[in-house]
Structures
1.
Amino acid sequence: MTVGIIGLGLIGGSMAIDLKRRGFADRIIGVESNSINASAAGKIGLVDEVVSYETCVEEADIVVVAVPVGAAVKMVSDILDRFQTAGAKEKIVIDTCSTKEQIALATHYHPCRGQFVSTHPMAGTEYSGPWAAMPNLFDGRACIFANPEESSPKALKTIEEMYDVLNMRPIYMNASSHDLHTAYVSHISHVTSFALALTVLDKEKDEKHIFDLASGGFSSTVRLAKSNADMWVPILTQNRDNVLQVIDTYLEKMTQFRNAIADFDEEGIRSLIEDANRIKKIIR
Amino acid sequence: MTVGIIGLGLIGGSMAIDLKRRGFADRIIGVESNSINASAAGKIGLVDEVVSYETCVEEADIVVVAVPVGAAVKMVSDILDRFQTAGAKEKIVIDTCSTKEQIALATHYHPCRGQFVSTHPMAGTEYSGPWAAMPNLFDGRACIFANPEESSPKALKTIEEMYDVLNMRPIYMNASSHDLHTAYVSHISHVTSFALALTVLDKEKDEKHIFDLASGGFSSTVRLAKSNADMWVPILTQNRDNVLQVIDTYLEKMTQFRNAIADFDEEGIRSLIEDANRIKKIIR
């Protein structure tokens, strides 16, 4: 089996490592539009060969689109067109994007829709590029299959097997539920981290103080603020409506906190904190 | 040297472990007002003996006050009173609180002020109680000495040696600067985490979705929301003015983000993210 990976960054590169060493793919070819990253991916040995986009789509049995979500929407449709033209009925394309509804809409009526499996492997770090790729990134994490009933049973089964090799737990969901839930459990965390970094950088002009005083708690809360704009601008715009709804709830909660502190309302602060503590039941 | 620790939780308990095993203290006695925690601390062996408050102040050469900041303000003054009455001029008391200005004001005119060293060892986890105590908690972290010029040189030197044994980096600062800076690099992180937990718990009535979908990013951003109300209510009220100022800046930044997303202003979102990315220069 030849797997072709378009976008040799954190997700694509990490997939390449484990699909090869765990024997799912005999050959891994990769496409990378940034020439520095392409050269690095070759030198690191993430893939057997860095090839052109056309060659990748032609030679791979499974094409993994692991590029930011704006580009991915167009690319998946283009790849399905190429499958159709070539009469390549056995080939499969998947995406790995963090928002699913727009890509679902864009492909819904495509005659080769069955050959597309829309997935979101929920793993990552705040780093990007081929240098961020690592083995075992996906182990034990959830992989969402969006609108799985639109894929052919055979394509779906192959990709389920692929994620099983990556040790991921499959979760099946429609694309719009996915976008709503990820707004809550992923996208908002990034926005709150970005806002925290902006606040601290704005006020602490003397960066040495941040460096000296930053506790482990601050570092973990602000970690996601290192995340890449190329990835996050399209996620936040494509999932605009859900993200706005979450931000508005968040602003309400933050304002409740603010007012309780302003009023020296110790009981109010305590009750907000104890309510928030319920997260212990869910997150280890 | 006998060290007496009042409050055998995360901070006090972890200090007990390392001061004993690294040979700074020959004997460690402890005070714990919660009887379940006291019994646990004894069984875990955090201290050589759990004693009464009076015995602790009488027998210890150094008294470490490691209780929530509201209680600590009164307790440190009371301990200085007892030193004075007993003519115990060699004894030292320290606090370990996360806010420093009120305790500085409360002790400033005390005749035994020189015997008090006000410190903030900036280490911790989101857990509390004697079960949360652990070896090596303080290694490599910063310890702030607030208004060190008000302590006698001898008392200051002893406590510097004590924190050196705990492998902490000393930083000297006046109490009001401390409270301003920690509002930025510690207190606000807790408030943003509490608000995040409240938002997600409010919207995701079905907790299974949070559990299934929560990525590593969400977990690290929301981790501090497990923090204890007994500790955080007094910190947030004692440091009210600084915390409010930071929350207000934070609300502004969050609103800028919200508006850029609402307007599909991709350049605006990109520029906010890239600004926030500057945190990379400071936090590893």
Note: Strands of chain B lie at 2-6, 27-31, 49-50, 62-65, 92-95, 116-121, 142-146, 169-173.
2.
Amino acid sequence: MRTRVSCAWLAIIPALLWHMPAWPRSPAEIIAAASPAEWRRLDPDNGLLLDLAGHSVIIELAPRFAPLHVANIKRLAHEHFYDGLAVVRVQDNYVTQWGDPDADDPAKARSLGGAAPHLPAEFWIHAKGLPIDRLPDPDGWAPLTGFVDGFPVAVDQAHDRAWITHCYGIVGAGRSSAIDSSTGAELYAIIGQSPRGLDRNITVVGRVLRGMEFLAALPRGTGMMGFYQEPQQRTIITSVRLLADLPEAQRPTLELLRTESATWRALVAERRNFSNDFFVTKANFTNVCNVAVPVRVATPRS
Amino acid sequence: MRTRVSCAWLAIIPALLWHMPAWPRSPAEIIAAASPAEWRRLDPDNGLLLDLAGHSVIIELAPRFAPLHVANIKRLAHEHFYDGLAVVRVQDNYVTQWGDPDADDPAKARSLGGAAPHLPAEFWIHAKGLPIDRLPDPDGWAPLTGFVDGFPVAVDQAHDRAWITHCYGIVGAGRSSAIDSSTGAELYAIIGQSPRGLDRNITVVGRVLRGMEFLAALPRGTGMMGFYQEPQQRTIITSVRLLADLPEAQRPTLELLRTESATWRALVAERRNFSNDFFVTKANFTNVCNVAVPVRVATPRS
């Protein structure tokens, strides 16, 4: 005979749900679920705000990796050195570069003021003791990769060296052939496939947090190495300011996801194997230039 | 007593030069020294000429990897399907995409004419017997990489699969969630860090040989996934023609370096360890998206 099925079994549903794997979540859903403690505020003492013809670009500086260059750049910004200079070079699939168009002409070059005219190269730092949030996959360009202070980093433990990798949006200090010829007066951002061959050959000073969609879409220069051939092709730098030098009300307040967080690890896992149904083949792999640390406008503090 | 030194020792100089390592040569010098036989002409039957608002873009199609999509694209070009359509999407560090802005509206969508409205996915081909010019370094994303017909390719020998890798300038056929929803009517080019996670998830149909400096510098769309929000933001496609459909005098004639050539191997070696003195740290590594096959305007045939 048939009996009415008891509903007591419903009591186990919460336990079942608890033990079921989570539904796949999109990167946006993973980020939205991050706790407030998993975000950090951009330190105004390490944030640069560039105004280029009305477009804002925000850069986070990397004092741990290039302390002397970063100090010089802060000094240059503080003294308004960059104001009125220009984007001088845009080479497709490589770099957008800005600085003093007359830098090579001693008669016309702008004075660096109180900033150092010469600095040692800062191509790498010691790796020992560095708090690295490691990526799981091999890199090819370096024995180990991960993130430090939100920056993509490669590490050669055997030689005790760590350096920021030339990924999309990374900012470096232009130099001539002498390795100690960069000062931070001339800067570039990577706008294409990561040119990792530059790693440990040039001093990296930071990363663009906002404004790549402008820097990467500038008209390419038609001269050698993408330099503009006519002055009128250059985009003028209206101003460059350290956020700490601005009145607090004028500072853009950004937050970055901490790479020591569980949310970051979930994002890296998602990038290795996209859960989106569009991806029928899962790569089961990613690399240090194919994952980017999320940045958001800070929510007001109450 | 002093005697006059004999000059007979000079006779050994040619032998010394012969056994000395070659002077490091720049990539431009390596390419300039290539023999005529190391170059191949772009086959007009696999070349597409796009005119976008007066800018020329030249694409080489990849019939070995996507025969059905390539045949469809040729048919669409032959019937002038693309003329008057537009660049509809530019997502920073990802893709520039063009096609019919009304494709999703059956009432307004342009007819595909004699082209197939449905095609199977062509995500990979069989690897067995494929003439691959291998790269020496490991890849991470795939067991083996190299070049086939001038295209960057990854290979999984265990599963007998080979596919074109999503490097800068690679052209693919946009699709919706169904894997067989691409026809070649909607195309995209990669404009940033190579999104290798797309490999084997979408049908790749070719590579941009000329015009990336225009496609990659278009204003980024501000809508979801970089779609333009206003029709007037779109760049109009004046025309798309198969080179073979053009009168011979109107065909741009390009040449590509053969990847089975000694010159190509020398270029790869140079990319792995730049001989330029600027590079004080040699990577001793490169990958399939960090080397690009040289393209030049063909010298007139006498």
Note: The radius of gyration of chain A is 23 Å.
3.
Amino acid sequence: MSGKIEAHLESLGITLPAAASPVANYVPFLRTGDHLFISGQLSKAIDGTLISGHLGDNLTVADGQAAARAAALNILAQVQLALGSLDSVAQIVRLNGFVAATPAFTDHPQVINGASDLMVEIFAERGRHTRAAIGVTSLPLGCAVEIDAIVKVAET
Amino acid sequence: MSGKIEAHLESLGITLPAAASPVANYVPFLRTGDHLFISGQLSKAIDGTLISGHLGDNLTVADGQAAARAAALNILAQVQLALGSLDSVAQIVRLNGFVAATPAFTDHPQVINGASDLMVEIFAERGRHTRAAIGVTSLPLGCAVEIDAIVKVAET
Amino acid sequence: MSGKIEAHLESLGITLPAAASPVANYVPFLRTGDHLFISGQLSKAIDGTLISGHLGDNLTVADGQAAARAAALNILAQVQLALGSLDSVAQIVRLNGFVAATPAFTDHPQVINGASDLMVEIFAERGRHTRAAIGVTSLPLGCAVEIDAIVKVAET
């Protein structure tokens, strides 16, 4: 926790959660060349509470945005663990945002903005990523949002 | 609109839509090395009409194919904006095709063929991509199909 | 079928299915640089039987794990066809696991472990991948699990 981005996080009042350990035969991150792949991260708050439910049913768009932001913070925790400091992020290349949602729900973009806005708040231009926002039936543990990522690593 | 592929498009009678601007803190395309990532594009027709609904409910497979083709045209509009000309496409590497569908629906491949066939019609071998076809609960704005892409850029 | 991994497969009693041919204008695999993209593979058993249904409805978690393992075997059949031998796999980089599931289903990770465990059983450290596990409405042909992959190819 020693880089410029970490100092920026502190000035924003943002604390990263502990990076979640995978509970099976996979890894939370893997680097190939200058790209870092991050496994799907769940909408778990920093106190460990799961943000669960379905958009269009028992969750509001604001709930969904908070869930997406929580998933994005879990992504950043993995990136920091992988790279040592968030300063080594050259670019957030890709976010795939999966939203547990009903068939009638239509505001997936607003939900995933909870993650996208965080990335730009933290990394500015380096945080502006491509993305997809998709409404799905259900997610692990009943969580509301799952997001995975591809990050380009700065040359050192 | 000046390349060989653009001339081929004209001979096929295909007009690309205007590239959609993102409405949030993300970008429609991003290049990293020789790969271009395209954000999820919706099934919006060239006149701006959204092709909405669910396969297995109020849309036929033919409707879905038209939706997939419309999403693919929006991908190509982004690729053209990113690269200047579609001649700079070395290979369509990947399409992820998400189809708003009921639990009983089974014809996702036929739906996504609306996009795949277009790519091969336009780019021939360079258009033959890997893909996944997935049935989801709902998509942004209620659209029927969303497709994202990874494109390899030709060395220049 | 001549490499060390193929011999390891034989010692494990694992037989790969025949690599499925795509039925449309796409390809089952595509290499770009040292990465091999594999199209979404379905939960089809080696005898050609489709493992179909929905988790949380008519399939148990054990059924889902068998489906995920079957999809993963189909991925490996494509990798072997693409590279000649599984010995050319440097790393399984990414698995996206899509599970046909009801809204109330929560055990997607356990289901996709059927694929993840197989990769590590076969490739040990080189098989430890990033992944996402997602519950979707429906999948092609009604199959229970679809998995796609990105594989890093060993330099030769």
Note: The CA atoms of residues 19 and 150 of chain B lie 17 Å apart.
4.
Amino acid sequence: MKENNRPLILISNDDGYQAKGINTLIDMLRDMADLLVCAPDGPRSGFSCAFTANDPLRLTLQRREAGLDIYSCSGTPADCVKIALDQLLPTGDDGKPRWPDMVVGGINHGDNGSVNSHYSGTMGVTMEGCMKYIPSVAFSLCDHDPQADFEPMRPYVVEITRRVLEQGLPRGVCLNVNFPMGKSFRGIRACRMAFGTWYNEVETRHHQRGYDYYWMIGHYRNDEPEAEDTDNWALQHG
Amino acid sequence: MKENNRPLILISNDDGYQAKGINTLIDMLRDMADLLVCAPDGPRSGFSCAFTANDPLRLTLQRREAGLDIYSCSGTPADCVKIALDQLLPTGDDGKPRWPDMVVGGINHGDNGSVNSHYSGTMGVTMEGCMKYIPSVAFSLCDHDPQADFEPMRPYVVEITRRVLEQGLPRGVCLNVNFPMGKSFRGIRACRMAFGTWYNEVETRHHQRGYDYYWMIGHYRNDEPEAEDTDNWALQHG
């Protein structure tokens, strides 16, 4: 890592270090800060704020360039933040570990709208940063395509990050920033989380050895589709 | 399960179906409701609201008596609630599945105080019930001993459960009820979550095959020990 006066941003996600979203985020933020990336070694969607209490974790340095370290971790999104803060901080000019100026989660492939964002591993990253009193933001795009086009988000991601670096956030407050699919956005709105429900969440299959097993899947239903002050409504309306 | 007009309570936890805490809870609530228990097949502390997106789950009926079904599940605490609501509801007199009147998580071995209750699998149970619009409560005792004495909690657990069954809870509101250690309580107080931090969370070990591995552990620090409106303060003062 470079030793300089640039800010340091810790980045993680729940789609894994190889996902297009996190690599696009790295590209977007690289000019404005030194980046320490510690992300899961594979998909960890739905891991919420979970951490790994009962198993040992592994860390692997995947890439090191000027101003950029990328590690993969065998744990959860929250584990990635914890282990980065404890083990991976670069040394500053004063010989001490540099504490991150900001934690950024994402860019998530798929939205984190509604109260169901409690399930989000991307929000797990951001909540973990927030609980360590670091200004923390999650970015998500309403597009699950592994090859989704994140470029329309670039000026917003850069500007929101720049402002949070400059102004910080109140203690106990983090940002959950969602972008509608598409090439243009109608505007920016601060919203409350919609009430919504996942239903038909379990698919039963029968194993040839004589037992049933279950996959967690399901469909999402917005339970207040007319509520214009909600994130679901705003995202559906651009 | 009995078919009658008694309420139905869905119970889960994060310490596993064999823990003393959940079995004590079953004993406490059995007189007042039919109980459907679906709990992890082993410890799942720290699982937050996580659900299992990428692996199949297994269910095992452990015990069936009048008014009591106990299942173990290979998934997370939130998975247990989801799979119980989708697969395990008893049939009512009208031939339809009986929807639970309440979800109860616990009794947890150890407190779920401070903002760090976001990590709690017991709260994962309760948040999941809340997101399904079922009145939901978590009970925790500030004692990690597997043989902890839960009996002093009994009248409070029964009374809080009775009141929530009668009166319900507002949409989006669940209760996180913590009990201090000891045989007597000085009173009941509704508190905000204290700001507190886990630190020294990672222990590094070297494996003989030449790599490092890491355990998530750590120590808790209350960052506002003088704040009398917090859960940490109230629990420390009985």
Note: Residues 154-167 of chain B form the longest helix (14 residues).
